Amino acid sequence: MFEWQSWIGLPIAVVIALTIAMVVIAVVSLVARVAARRRDWPKALIAGSRVPFRLLLAIIATWAAVAATLPQPGWREFVNHAFLIATIASAAWFVGRLSSFGLGVAMSRYRIDVPDNRVARRVQTQLLVIRRLVLAVIAIVAAGAILLTFPGVQAVGASVLASAGIVSIVAGLAAQSTLANVFAGVQLAFSDAIRVDDVVIADGEWGRIEEITLTYVVVHIWDDRRMVLPSTYFTTTPFQNWTRRGSELLGAVEFDLDWRVSPSEMREELDNILARTPAWDGRTRVLQVTDATGGYVRVRILVTAVDAPTLFDLRCAVREQMVEWLHTKSPVSLPHERFEAVDGGGDVPRTRMVASSPEGLFTGSVAAQERATHFGAAATAPVTIVPGAVAPGSASPTIPPER
Fold this sequence. Notes:
Elements: H1 9-36, H2 41-69, H3 73-108, H4 118-148, H5 151-162, H6 164-174, H7 176-191, E1 199-202, E2 205-212, E3 216-221, E4 226-230, H8 233-236, E5 240-241, E6 249-257, H9 263-275, E7 285-291, E8 297-305, H10 308-328, E9 338-342, E10 350-354, H11 366-380
Antiparallel strand pairs: 1-2, 1-5, 2-3, 3-4, 6-8, 7-8, 9-10
């Protein structure tokens, strides 16, 4: 009878075990390929989990063969421990790939490359954070399970549990900022404050939310820079979210023009500009005179677009074409500063500014200029001082005694 527990039976048993594992892998692959003909997700599952699945089956098969045929009983404990650690690590890898695949399939059902994507961005943000949490939990559990396989660690575990209160306090103080960012990341994912692809203004920069992790948020700024902010920034600091409820936005274009501007003609030109501009979504077009002080007339134009980048381009287009129209069709509407020459007497005429300087005691109006003229004439008239003389209607001065 053949002796399996020998150095000859060991490699034969390992080869047989690996052959059985290869057969199982081939059967599973065949079933997955047949399923992939009808749907796309089995093909992605095979591509993502092929390596960890094969590795796990090979380790388990080899472990069973070695444990049954190892001729040295003294090595059995060491070999079993090594295979146990390898099995835990490969199983954690395989489970992590399966969880990532399942959450990835769920995320792919919600597209964010469509105009109305608010719900899709919210779900994708939440699933992204959940996937990171699941992977972190799997890694922590696998590391803990590997450590617990060592007898020394099991002995230390009792003392650690006995002093868990002190350890938790010390760990909480040491990792206060890290834990705060982790909790803030979870809060951001499920409070719907920000989502992936949201347009925000954070720390004075305009950009889109590119990535949300458990500890930080990446903002893709308009000039292709990336700003990395801690998760606590978005829970403790005010910021602007331009796509909180929808991507449609309202923007303003303002002009300071002359009083001779014709708002009705500008309104007609605005209609012509928007009619030939595809960036305008057709919801709002308003031209109003919002102010008329300080020598200028302020004209404000309000337009709408489907999202923030389109709105920026639309505002630039309206501003550029309106400036060109003002130069070519209505040059009198361009802002002017007027000056009026006023004859104040003498050979040199005086000049005063109209509609650009506030009225004061001696400037800003005709009456003020006349006061300035009289004041200057009185200041230059000759004055005769008579010692001891008293002006009419005034009291007699008191002369201090000589010392």
